[in-house]
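Issue 218. Parser rejects a valid record. Input:
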Amino acid sequence: MDRTQALGVTLASLVLWAGACAPKKKPIVVGSKNFTEQVVLGEIIAQHLQNRLPQARIVRQLNLSGTLITYQALTTGQITLYPEYTGTIESEILKEKSSDAAQAWERSRLEMRRLAQVEVMPPLGIDNFFAMVIRGEDARKYKLETLSQAAQIKTGWRLGAGYEFEQRLDGMPALALYHLPMGVPPRSMDLGLLYRALDDGQVTMIAANATDGPLAAHDWKILQDDRKVFGPYQACILVRMDAETREPGLRPALSELSGKLTNEIMRKLDAAVDVEHRQAREVAADFLRQAGLGAAK
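Output the parser choked on:
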């Protein structure tokens, strides 16, 4: 081998070595909290990003935990983004409350940028407020439409609630403002068991969410929050601003999802998982196709 050939081999080796040693581009890690709607939204986001950003590596960290742990994962960089609700941002992170939906989003957007360098994307179209749900037969029996009317039922209520609802300032303390008579102390249970407990008569009221899948498939009644103690809970995507800088196409891709959902659509998506027992990935893919958000051509 002559010197020219040897030099060529050496340069080629250096190029290969440099490529192997070059730092790999950070993946976009999509997170979610640990209930059905969050997992479905996480899948929708992850699949949409895979469609729009084929050059990026999309990693899922779904079904993580409750609000504070998932938010901490975002701020520490363990995840890049996740879906959250404006009412939750205000009550659990900012420790404040707004009764107006537009004001809640704007306040959340400004404060999250300032405090955590996190962007709050425009709402997806869902307002997943806390919903106090009773059986339809009980609503008809007592002629109930509102929580204030429910407070007049002297026999009292047996309430079932998730663990986070009991701990959050915008949960049980907010509901307490109605002074609902309780026959027994509230029962804590997993979110997936609430509707079964209501159907079986173990409880007579549950602290649920407005977009829960079972609401689309049974005779349930949501009692109106006529005193507006719970506030708006518009679903938005929280994304780290440094990730938007690294991946310029990230924000435009996420913006395509804004306004594409409604409470009715979300109930059907959640019901497809909780009632029909379909996989969240399959449900998310169907939604993206129907919304005209398939793979870019």
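Fixed in the parser; the record now loads. The chain is about 45% helix and 15% strand.
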